[in-house]
Design a protein that fits this description.
three-stranded antiparallel sheet, Glucose Permease (Domain IIA), alpha+beta, eight-stranded antiparallel sheet, 212 residues
Length: 212
Amino acid sequence: MVTSYGYSTVIKVLLLCMALSAAAMIFPSGIQITILFTAFTALLFTIYFFRDPKRKAPDEKRVIVAPADGKILLVQKHTENVAGKPSTLVSIFMSPFNVHVNRIPLSGKVTQLRYRSGQFLMAFDPRSMESNEKMEIGINNGEIEVRFSQVSGFLARRIVCQLQKGESVTIGKRFGMIKFGSRVDLILPPSATVLVQPGQKTRAGETILASY
């Protein structure tokens, strides 16, 4: 299943590959094979990158799930405060080989939605959290508020977010993606008990990051 967020990119790559394949016919057979193989590989990778497997949110109540596939890069205290107390930063690194569709970490209402332009540092660079282009999102369910950011990276320069401020959202549902590798940073309030550690792999909409 290919995500609708990637339809335009897949079509563009398909047309480019078709043009390359047609142009390859004017070259000797050895070069033809190389061009055709390259075009076919590029198309397969594009389809693979925009895959969108089905996910099922956990049945447990009062949990926060991963908004992205990837690997836990950081779990540490953060200077930003939520409810006037120190918060915890949980950062997920997404490689180009991870599923890139992002999902809602908890049910509630979208209270914050702010786009910030910025740089395109490597996603694993600690400075990218503050310096890179990002979409900042806040969700509040009346009991807890979670803030998280879709952060662009060196290759990822297209953030897709279909949320609207004030809308109600459901845990595990798709809301957007970051194209071609990056990171998602979550800021959890003190009332959340973090259940993951650096190096652990995550699945968007399924892996429980914290309980409250």
